[in-house]
Amino acid sequence: MILESMGYALGILMLVVILLDVIPQLADWVGRIHIGRFDNEASWNEAITDRGIQWLRHTPKIKVTDNTRFVVIDILKGNYTKAAIQHWQEASLLLGMAEYLRHHDDPRAKQQIRGYVSKTFDANGGWVSRPEHIDGAILAYALMKLDFLDPDHYKPALDATWEMIQEHIGQDGTVEYRKYMKSYRYVDTIGFICPFLVAYGLRYGKEECIELAVKQIKEYERYGLLEQHDLPCHVYKLDNKAPLGLYGWGRGLGWFAIGLIDAWNELPQAHKHKSGLEEIVRKFAKAAIRFQQSGGHWNWTVTRGETRPDSSATATLGWFLLHAARIDSISEECMASAYQAIRYLMKVTRRNGAVDFSQGDTKDIGVYSTLFNILPFTQGFCIRCIHAYRHQAAAYKKTA
């Protein structure tokens, strides 16, 4: 009897293990039936925005590993997902909603945002759980972009974010990706911190924050961009400025792009650093356009046409180029490139509005994910893209 019971228990356990592996793959297969059937921007816009609103309260967990077998082991070890990864997923959704609400008054979206904010920040405006890593800064920036909320109420959380960034400033005066990786400077850091530093510095009169953001960008331009091609490497080593990882990693271009363009956007026209950043925007826009594929996308390795398209790179670079189009000398080519990116993203969107085929989380310097799936980060930037594009396109028509 005991052996029989043990056999039943073992059988149930094995079934659970198998189901944890099989169900996600089956769900992906079903979700991709009739993928990319959106034939106009209005219906796509509605679908991806609705999906983003739903995900605000229940954001899909993003895997740390690429394992698709015996997933239960990763879950039990706590290696399935990490809070830092979730921060930039949720931040992107909030940024997408902020752009959406700039052009629409949607009570349901605001309600969902308030629900998310209430579980992330306490009644006094501080973090419920203060981020340990700089990934949290982009979430603080997203909070500042929600115009219907009072940013000053959340000043304790914003101040804590600035303090956390200061704790990561290294010997060269730039910000470390992690405290235990003092000798490396990552391209990801540009996207994580620079927009927040500029927005926070302007709002609260802290010029040192703006100076730090500009220094972070210019140091990366100096040591992390490939000469002649202007492509960022994944990382550069601090002591000898040697590049590490891949030049032309798609999402690496995206991190550099969003950090640069949002920081530039935040600066007023008369600010002393506006023109300097604008020159970097112009140079990087031309580089990005050169490596866009004929289908409108960027591959996960942008320099190789044989590699897989990456929706996260495409969405972030599309956002960058939309705003780079404000520079007269490159306006037309940037708008055309951004439009092609949007058309591609429509083709990789599932029936339920989830944008598919984004590269998974990076494992280490030069160790990139082989999984391509949904990513809330991509969803948020698609929402940002389409609402900004439709607004800009309408504005161009009025002035034509």
Give a short synopsis of this structure.
The protein is mainly alpha-helical.
Radius of gyration equals 21 Å
| N-to-C CA distance | 83 Å
Overall number of domains: 1
User: In what order do the strands lie side by side in the largest sheet?
Assistant: 1-2-3
Largest sheet geometry:
3 strands, antiparallel
pLDDT below 50 for ≥5 consecutive residues: which ranges?
A: none
Helix percent band: 55-70%
Per CATH, which architecture? Alpha/alpha barrel
CATH C-level class is Mainly Alpha
Task: Tell how many strands the DSSP assignment holds.
Answer: 5
Strand content: under 5%
Mean pLDDT: 91
CATH fold call: Glycosyltransferase
Element-level helix/strand string: HHHHHHHEHHEEHHHHEEH
Transmembrane segments: 6-27
Protein name: Glycoside hydrolase 105 family protein
GO molecular function, one term: hydrolase activity
InterPro entries: 6-hairpin_glycosidase_sf, 6hp_glycosidase-like_sf, Glyco_hydro_88, PolySaccharide_Degr_Enz
Question: What would you note in describing this structure?
Answer:
The protein has 400 residues and is mostly helical. It has a single domain (32-399), classed as Glycosyltransferase, CATH 1.50.10. Helices cover 58% and strands 4% of the residues. It contains 14 helices and five strands. The protein has helices at residues 2-31, 41-57, 71-77, 83-103, 107-120, 136-144, 155-166, 188-204, 207-224, 250-266, 274-290, 311-324, 331-347, 376-399, and strands spanning 184-186, 233-237, 243-247, 358-359, 372-373. The strands form two sheets. Strands 1-2-3 form a three-stranded antiparallel beta sheet. A two-stranded antiparallel sheet has the order 4-5. The chain is globular. The protein starts with a helix and ends with a helix. The model has no long low-confidence stretch (mean pLDDT 91).
